[in-house]
């Protein structure tokens, strides 16, 4: 899984938003984001886009954890709790996997483990490996 960690260390948006990859294994990922001022909307609660980005990062890591490039083709999110501070976690789990399509469920929770949002995503799995994709970007 070290090649997956290395690949996602180049994710500029995740870095900009202060996301940290905690765990990755085949079909699973767990990420964390400490809530900061930059994550707030005009109501002083965490912006839905920040929550979506956190879940999407976990989704990306889990779906690419097999070493094959996977790109999102569908994603939806349901928000269940407003957040004003603390730390957020997103845990992605693979629900189904086949050669071309895979689906994932991502649970976003607060630092007490209470549900904040649920994210469902589907990816298209390309033939290209993550290592091939990184090599192309280096050129």
Short description:
The protein is α+β, with helices and mostly antiparallel strands. The protein has helices at residues 2-8, 12-16, 48-64, 130-138, and strands spanning 19-25, 28-34, 68-79, 87-97, 101-109, 115-129. β4 (87-97) and β5 (101-109) form a beta hairpin.
Q: How do the helices and strands line up, and which of them pair or pack?
A:
Blueprint: H1 2-8, H2 12-16, E1 19-25, E2 28-34, H3 48-64, E3 68-79, E4 87-97, E5 101-109, E6 115-129, H4 130-138
Antiparallel strand pairs: 1-2, 2-4, 3-6, 4-5, 5-6
Structural summary, described in words:
The chain is α+β, with helices and mostly antiparallel strands and 139 residues long. Helix content is 27%, strand content 44%. It contains four helices and six strands. It has helices spanning 2-8, 12-16, 48-64, 130-138, and strands at 19-25, 28-34, 68-79, 87-97, 101-109, 115-129. Strands 1-2-4-5-6-3 form a six-stranded antiparallel beta sheet. A hairpin with a 2-residue loop joins strand 1 (19-25) and strand 2. The chain is globular. The model has no long low-confidence stretch (mean pLDDT 95).
Main β-sheet, in a few words? 6 strands, antiparallel
Shape assignment: globular
Count every beta strand, where a strand is a DSSP E run of 2 or more residues.
Answer: 6
Q: What is the subunit organization of this protein?
A: single chain
Strand coverage percent: 35-45%
Instruction: Give average pLDDT, whole number.
Output: 95
Distance between the termini: 24 Å
Order of strands, main sheet, comes to 1-2-4-5-6-3
Low-confidence stretches: none
Over all CA atoms, what is the radius of gyration?
15 Å
How large is the count of helical segments?
4
Helix content: 25-40%
What is the string of helix and strand elements? HHEEHEEEEH
């Amino acid at each position: 899984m070290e090649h997956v960690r290395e690949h996602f260390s180049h994710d500029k948006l995740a870095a900009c938003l202060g996301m940290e990859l905690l765990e990755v294994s085949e079909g699973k990922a767990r990420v964390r984001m400490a809530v900061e001022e930059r994550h707030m909307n005009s109501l002083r609660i965490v912006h839905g886009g920040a929550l979506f980005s956190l879940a999407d990062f976990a989704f990306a890591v889990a779906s690419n954890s097999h070493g094959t490039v996977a790109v999102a083709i569908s994603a939806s999110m349901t928000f269940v709790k407003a957040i004003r501070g603390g730390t957020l976690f997103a845990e992605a789990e693979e629900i189904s996997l086949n050669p071309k399509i895979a689906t994932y469920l991502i649970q976003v929770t607060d630092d007490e483990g209470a549900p904040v949002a649920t994210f469902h995503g589907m990816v298209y799995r390309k033939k290209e490996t993550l290592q091939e994709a990184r090599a192309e970007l280096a050129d």
